[in-house]
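Let's practice the habit of predicting before peeking. Look at the sequence and jot down your guess about where helices and strands might fall. Then scroll down.
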Amino acid sequence: MISGRERFLREAEAGSPGAPEEPSARARMVTRRLREQPGQPEGWRTYRPARRRRRGKGWYLVGLAAAVALLVVALVPGLVAGWFGGGDGTDAPRVAGESQRPDGPPAQKAAGRLPTPDRPFSGSPAASRADGEAGIHLPAARATGWMSRSEVEQALDRTRDFLAASSLDGAVLRGERPSGAMAFIDPHQSDVQDFIEEAFRAPGRENDPLLLFSRFRPSDVRLVGDVVKTRGRISFREGGRGAVEVSTDVTYVYPVVRAEAGSDEVVRTIVRREVVLSWNDPAQAEVEPGTFSLVSYKVDATNGGCDTCTGYFTPVFGAERAATGAGDGAVVDPYDRSTSMEERMREAGDAGCGTATRS
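Done guessing? Here is the structure:
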């Protein structure tokens, strides 16, 4: 009888049916659901199972609370400072990758160009950020928990593949079902699987696919070009029972225009997601090749819709901003990554939609 590790290595080398395909043909990984960890702190806005005013849902995954949250930030031009300060989206020098949490927000720069279809990131810190996966920093791998250094490296690569499939894939951004991303999630996590199915069947306040996936309704808006700017990082540590727990914290900047032909007013939807997942030891529990367990996820979106429950981000344009009015929640800088999601949302409290200081 082969051991769980030997089975993992064979499956990793050969691949497995049904796992997401990828150009690099990276080795497949295996995972299990987390067991309950005594003393594990609960995440912000976790449900037991009472519901809060904002959209959100909580899971108990074999006893471990998985926190989810959504804070929608309204854009109000009368209250916004530094809307279009900075350089343009083509010539701005690239900033170094984010290997650790920054000390403060990006600087507010002097007024510059408005965003255009040719330069959709003009006037924002996104202009100097990397494109797509390149903006998601990976740490150096080391042997951790049940995994060797090379196995941890594979797990980190696969984690970034999930982020790309859920938040960067062009078809998913155009509203298609994120089958590739969903294939990474442990099918034995029945609560999560049920949530995902309900979220796409009948999205609403209790079941919102935007908690994990970025989607726009193609009849309303279309993406400008094929570049999404990103900034964020992935980290890891040993979790319970030797599992490798991976934390991701990434900000995505999506430039869009109205779907109507000839529309050229560019606005940006800014989404920050913090997703924690676990790659588990196959010797400890039955696992599925190529999947991980979700531990927690939090979302903060700017110009993505305020208290809307359509299953799509719904950015506003032009005069719509004035009609939106000032948010009654916190004032936030969507480009500020110097505080954790938990801290930001704790400061926001239970007030309604907040106000962004810039786009």
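How did you do? The chain has seven helices and 14 strands.
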